[in-house]
């Protein structure tokens, strides 16, 4: 999942400071991200006109807000299906999108499912390699079978994700946390 796009989707909920964005990303996507990457990404997003500074609080936390261009980019990211490949990345994207109020997670899941169905149809309708050498034919059959299995598994997983979102379309979302995240490294066992 693109950290850049995920930060924009989170900022669409309201202004945040760097450590807050890190905490929101972690609790929504189920993955940790280095705080340095957060700040580097924010600087690039600011350079490109997708975010801007929104002032600082009494503790010196610099808040970032999303611009109209950033809001449009985040909406496109949510709506467009991801390319096949990194399933963990897609799972994190869907998990994050499902927690954000005001985002149509069902539509994002449906778009991804439609893309997987189309990919499956293309794989299954591709002509067989009957004219290839026996080695090429076997590898082609194996690769097509793998592509087909991956597409079927993705469709099944997306159906389960859609069912989870449909069970409680509002209760699954939550606003930005008001709890200040701890700075520094998390504690390990004592």
Automatic annotation (TrEMBL):
<dbReference type="InterPro" id="IPR005149">
    <property type="entry name" value="Tscrpt_reg_PadR_N"/>
</dbReference>
<dbReference type="InterPro" id="IPR036390">
    <property type="entry name" value="WH_DNA-bd_sf"/>
</dbReference>
<dbReference type="Pfam" id="PF03551">
    <property type="entry name" value="PadR"/>
</dbReference>
<protein>
    <submittedName>
        <fullName>PadR family transcriptional regulator</fullName>
    </submittedName>
</protein>
<dbReference type="InterPro" id="IPR036388">
    <property type="entry name" value="WH-like_DNA-bd_sf"/>
</dbReference>
<feature type="domain" description="Transcription regulator PadR N-terminal">
    <location>
        <begin position="7"/>
        <end position="74"/>
    </location>
</feature>
């Amino acid at each position: 999942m693109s950290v850049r796009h995920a930060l924009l989707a989170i900022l669409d909920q309201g202004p945040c400071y760097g450590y807050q964005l890190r905490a929101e990303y972690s609790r929504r996507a189920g993955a940790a991200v280095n705080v340095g990457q957060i700040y580097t990404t924010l600087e690039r997003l600011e350079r490109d006109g997708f975010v801007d500074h929104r002032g600082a609080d009494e503790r010196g936390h610099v808040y970032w807000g999303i611009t109209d261009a950033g809001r449009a980019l985040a909406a496109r990211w949510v709506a467009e299906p991801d390319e096949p490949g990194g399933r963990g990345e897609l799972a994190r994207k869907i998990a994050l999108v499902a927690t954000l109020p005001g985002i149509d997670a069902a539509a994002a899941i449906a778009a991804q499912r439609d893309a997987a169905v189309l990919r499956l149809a293309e794989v299954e309708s591709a002509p067989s390699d009957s004219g290839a050498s026996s080695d090429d034919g076997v590898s082609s059959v194996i690769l097509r079978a793998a592509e087909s299995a991956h597409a079927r598994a993705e469709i099944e997983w997306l159906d389960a994700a859609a069912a989870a979102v449909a069970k409680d379309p509002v209760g699954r979302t939550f606003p930005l946390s008001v709890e200040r995240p701890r700075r520094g490294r998390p504690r390990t066992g004592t």
